[in-house]
Amino acid sequence: MENMRSGGEILVECLENQDISHVYCVPGESYLAVLDALHDAAIKVIVCRQEGGAAMMAEATARLTGGVGVAFVTRGPGATNASPAIHIAEHDSTPMVLFIGQVERGMRGRGAFQEMDYKAFFGSTAKWVVEIEHASRIPEIVSRAFHVALQGRPGPVVVALPEDVLTELAQVAACGKVEPVLTHPAPGQIDQMTAILAQAQRPIMILGGSMWDAASCAQVADFAARFELPVATSFRRANLFSSLHPNYAGEIGIGPNPKLLARIAGADLVILAGGRMAEMPSQSYTLFDIPHPKQKLVHIHAGAEELGRVYQPSLAIHASPRAFAAALAGKSPDKTVTWRGAVASARAEFDTWISTFPVRARQGFVDMVDVVSYLSDVLPPDLIQTNGAGNYAIWPGRYLPAKQFGGLLAPVSGSMGYGIPAAVAAKLLHPQRLVVSFAGDGCFLMNGQEFATAVQYGANIVVIVVDNAQYGTIRMHQEREYPARVSGTQLKNPDFAALARAFGGH
Hints:
Elements: E1 5-6, H1 7-17, E2 22-25, H2 32-38, E3 44-47, H3 51-65, E4 69-73, H4 77-92, E5 96-102, H5 118-122, E6 128-131, H6 138-150, E7 156-162, H7 163-167, E8 169-170, H8 189-198, E9 203-207, H9 214-227, E10 231-233, E11 248-251, H10 258-265, E12 269-273, E13 296-301, E14 315-318, H11 321-327, H12 342-355, H13 368-378, E15 384-387, H14 394-399, E16 408-409, H15 419-429, E17 435-440, H16 441-447, H17 451-456, E18 462-466, H18 472-481, H19 496-503
Parallel strand pairs: 2-3, 2-4, 4-5, 5-7, 6-7, 9-10, 9-12, 10-11, 12-13, 13-14, 15-16, 15-17, 17-18
Antiparallel strand pairs: 1-8
Helix pairs in contact: 1-2, 1-6, 3-4, 3-15, 9-11
């Protein structure tokens, strides 16, 4: 029949219509028809070395572009290897679609080679898990997958692709471009918020969550400047507000500035925009009383289910970050604010915090304060820094704060192994910007094989490995709970510089 195409061709055309520039994959025989269709597509195919790295690159791409990240992995082991990235995307509210190969339809339920029940496996982490039954339904399912990933609180979607569906022929049009439907503040809600703000004596704003962009961050910064409002960022969201801005008060996460915590605890109004105030930024749910915070709380979030989930707000605004930020335009205080001086004192506390060196290394050991302080002086403002999880992240988190939107890629889920894949994706998307990845020795060796991907595609990232020959964070907890009883936390590492050369790097 005329215009009959394979399921693989239909799927790739759907992705082209979404303006997907890169897909990340580890190849598998279960989706060869897709790989063949990608051969002639305008989409760049980045072949990775492990499915977790591929899916993390897709997640990082979504953060940097504000769109949907896409990865392809094969069935069974490929799917399970990719699962850490789905957990990251769920915690970080990142829109991504993971396409997974599946056994042929007629073999399902027999325990076929690498067969898995993806709905059972991913059901508690993905926003939606679906298996496509017919090639003719590919456009419908792909369209819905992108809508689900982008709408409300964004997150990951898993789409399973039976092998014979991808070779099946169908006569159907590809789906069109999916645009996120932004939820806007209800009429009068921004005026309500500014009225509450006018009555406050000690207000502060906290930014968090996903689906911001450079323009919306700038609009919030302008609002904060007009209202002389101190602004903090949530855990690993420091790129939402420039550390160079006079209104910036710092980040609340692991080991935050005690004076910033005291400022938030003593506030009479907290405007929480985009974030959820989960365990890390809330200091294990101690910063606010549950369910009724003693501070007045204005909570803005794109997901209606998040409003009142833990904290009952004085004013709940169901709005996407970009729509909320746009609604702030033209709003100014009616009179001189009563908290004048709060910005200067909050900024002074932040400046003291990032310039104070409380602990010095013993003689003969590397002093990371010196290292990161030097980097802070010499690295460009448009730096993109990435990291996974570990105590090593404390130093760049404190002494190398992000200076602009998109300047930090780090998982709020505390997932090790994220930094290298994220750095590769960042450099592929922004080849003109310097990308520096911080990694602990344990963190690097979880996805360090993606350094080979960086070399293969000329993604010239800089990797700083902090090698203390141990799983340092766990050792820290171990020393506290079971002092001098070291068990299961020591490592013997390779020569990381030699490893880089072996990969073809410097």
